[in-house]
């Protein structure tokens, strides 16, 4: 969460450090530009810049088309919320409301009811039911007498119970298809609802406004970028000057992300095109097939995956945050200089900020304020474990519930063993890292204070990536362990 | 919180938070209403340290009053939280 704090450019002594040269100028700090963007001509120029950036992004295969909608949202004043709702509905409609239609069609065939179902009609009805249910829950949570004390826990228990119910023999046929339809329709919005319920118990807002930021038009994964309405409101530009600065920050970020996206493409071309380095997963498959590639190639592909993944995450989150900023929401960046992390906890914070925030908000804090209150270190460690291991695992299990439909509950759970091991190691390591968190004395020198810790953090995340495969339910923990031992030279 | 205790809490919190900011290399000026977490100057780990410090120093149980980061988001907000009667231990 220290994402923007470090961009203030101060040292520990309070002296301002001004870099001599910047690839992307600090346009948001230029008073003339800030004033200019508030005038009609300036706004027109900003809009042209956004269109140019959209075209350049499109040329390299990155979708930045929501940026034009974002600029429109920013300028409609008190109608901004309405336009956000319309833009969100429009883009969700374009993407089929994120419902996994092929899965539901497959399920209908498997259950032998495909000829009795009109799939688009079923989807539409289920969507209405889900939205009505969400709206009802948000209304109830806004009332002190009916509010859930632990909304996220209640939500997860209910969702997982329904998921388990899909496996009951009594649900065979049409009931199972209907239940899966409900689960697959609500699943993309589950964590948005969790944030919405937490918000609703603290502050009153119209339900439609809360729903309008469930998968907002500026983009998101299942992780809400910008959390819920209450969080977004804190970041919303309130004056024309704030809006101008926020939008200039959006343009600046978009330009930087464009550079990184081009770097990512060039790197991919160099590594996998010119140097013919295989993808990391291909390395694993070759090893398991009994034809291991040279160890050096394995290491090179692991490192290249790590770097490409960092670039990919930066571009993915950067486009979303830049779009939100153009709409007038000064969100913090999702990925911010992860390679400068000197601790494991810091890396997690810098790599995928909004996902880390989700785990912290819904797992860490609730555990922290309730469990082991008399044991300082154990309390911190346990809360970290609940977030980084239990929360992390649950998030991915829910994200990939189609495996339950395709493989059955037991096989889907067992298939997640490797990822469970990954989250366990991650949680223990981050937990220990947090307990040891202390400022490094300057006397240790740049090498020991900065470079070596940064290298250790990157190496750690590189290595445990071998087990980080939530989408792979076929290969066992043992197989991935053997591959790591091979890379480390323990086995041949 | 009494009228006397208010400034004292603010002053204690200011010292504590300035110290944490300095540890992060942030020596920028800090005002009572400056946002700490929303602005990104402090992170979730700082929030945890802050919670533990408030629990220890002022006997507040966050499990009872409910955890809400916005109530820790500025020196003024913290002072108000610590000073409100419902937050005080019975």
List strands and helices in order, with pairings:
The complex is a heterodimer of chains A (492) and B (90).
Chain A: H1 31-37, H2 40-59, H3 66-74, H4 80-94, H5 101-110, H6 119-141, H7 151-165, H8 174-186, H9 190-200, H10 207-212, H11 229-235, H12 240-274, H13 280-288, H14 295-326, H15 344-351, H16 353-368, H17 376-399, H18 402-407, H19 409-414, H20 417-435, H21 445-464, H22 477-488
Chain B: H1 5-23, H2 44-58, H3 62-65, H4 75-83
Characterize this entry briefly.
The complex is a heterodimer of chains A (492) and B (90). Chain A is mainly alpha-helical and 492 residues long.
Straight-line distance between termini of chain B = 14 Å
Give the count of structural domains of chain B.
Answer: 1
CATH class of chain B: Mainly Alpha
CATH superfamily of chain B: ACP-like
Low-confidence stretches of chain A: 1-17
Overall residue-averaged pLDDT value of chain A: 90
Mean pLDDT over the residues of chain B: 81
Largest sheet of chain A: none
What share of the residues of chain A lie within helices?
Answer: 55-70%
Tell me about the biggest sheet of chain B?
none
Most extensive chain-chain interface:
A-B, 36 and 30 residues
Residue share in β-strands of chain A: under 5%
């Amino acid at each position: 969460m220290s994402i923007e704090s470090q961009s203030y450019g101060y040292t520990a002594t309070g002296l301002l450090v001004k870099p001599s040269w910047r690839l992307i100028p600090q346009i948001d700090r230029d008073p003339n530009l800030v004033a200019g963007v508030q005038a009609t001509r300036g706004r027109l120029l900003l809009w042209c810049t956004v269109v140019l950036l959209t075209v350049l992004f499109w040329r390299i295969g990155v979708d930045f088309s929501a940026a034009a909608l974002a600029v429109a949202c920013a300028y409609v004043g008190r109608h901004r919320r309405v336009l956000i709702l319309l833009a969100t509905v429009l883009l969700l409609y374009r993407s089929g409301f994120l419902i996994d239609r092929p899965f539901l069609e497959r399920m209908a065939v498997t259950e032998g009811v495909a000829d009795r179902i009109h799939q688009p009609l079923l989807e539409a009805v289920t969507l209405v039911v889900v939205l009505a249910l969400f709206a009802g829950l948000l209304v109830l949570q806004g009332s002190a007498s009916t509010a859930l004390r632990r909304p996220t826990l209640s939500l997860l228990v209910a969702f997982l119970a329904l998921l388990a119910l899909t496996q009951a023999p009594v649900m065979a046929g049409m009931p199972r298809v209907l239940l899966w339809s409900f689960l697959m329709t609500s699943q993309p919005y589950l964590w948005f609802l969790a944030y919405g319920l937490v918000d609703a118990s603290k502050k009153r807002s119209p339900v439609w406004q809360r729903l309008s930021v469930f998968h907002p038009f500026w983009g998101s994964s299942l992780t809400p970028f910008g959390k819920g309405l209450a969080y977004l409101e804190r970041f919303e530009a309130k004056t024309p000057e704030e809006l101008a600065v926020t939008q200039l920050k959006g343009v600046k970020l978009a330009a930087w992300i464009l550079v990184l996206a081009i770097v990512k493409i060039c790197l991919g071309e160099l590594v996998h095109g010119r140097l013919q380095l295989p993808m990391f997963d291909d390395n694993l498959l070759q090893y398991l097939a009994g034809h291991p590639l040279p160890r050096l190639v394995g290491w090179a592909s692991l490192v290249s995956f790590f770097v490409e993944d960092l670039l990919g995450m930066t571009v993915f989150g950067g486009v979303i945050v830049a779009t939100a900023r153009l709409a007038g929401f000064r969100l913090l960046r999702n990925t911010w200089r992860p390679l400068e992390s000197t601790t494991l906890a810091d890396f997690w914070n810098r790599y995928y900020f909004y996902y880390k925030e989700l785990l912290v908000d819904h797992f860490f804090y609730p555990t922290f304020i309730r469990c082991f209150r008399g044991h300082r270190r154990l309390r911190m460690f346990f809360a970290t474990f609940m977030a980084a291991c239990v929360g992390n695992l649950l998030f991915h299990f829910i994200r990939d519930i189609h495996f339950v439909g395709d493989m059955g509950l037991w096989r889907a759970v067992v298939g997640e063993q490797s990822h469970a091991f990954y989250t366990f190691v991650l949680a223990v390591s981050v937990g220990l890292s947090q307990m040891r968190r202390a400022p490094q004395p300057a006397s240790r020198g740049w090498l020991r204070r900065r470079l070596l810790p940064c290298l250790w953090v990157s190496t750690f995340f590189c290595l445990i990536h071998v087990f980080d495969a939530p989408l792979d339910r076929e290969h066992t923990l043992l197989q991935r362990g053997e591959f790591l031992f091979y890379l480390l030279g323990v086995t041949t | 919180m009494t009228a006397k205790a208010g400034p004292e809490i603010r002053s204690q919190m200011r010292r504590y938070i300035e110290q944490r900011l300095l540890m992060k290399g942030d020596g920028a000026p800090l005002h009572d209403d400056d946002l700490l977490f929303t602005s990104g100057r402090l992170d979730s780990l700082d929030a945890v340290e802050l919670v533990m410090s408030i629990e220890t120093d002022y006997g507040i149980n966050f499990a009872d009053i409910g955890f809400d980061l916005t109530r820790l988001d500025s020196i003024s907000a913290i002072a108000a939280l610590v000073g409100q009667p419902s937050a005080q231990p019975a």
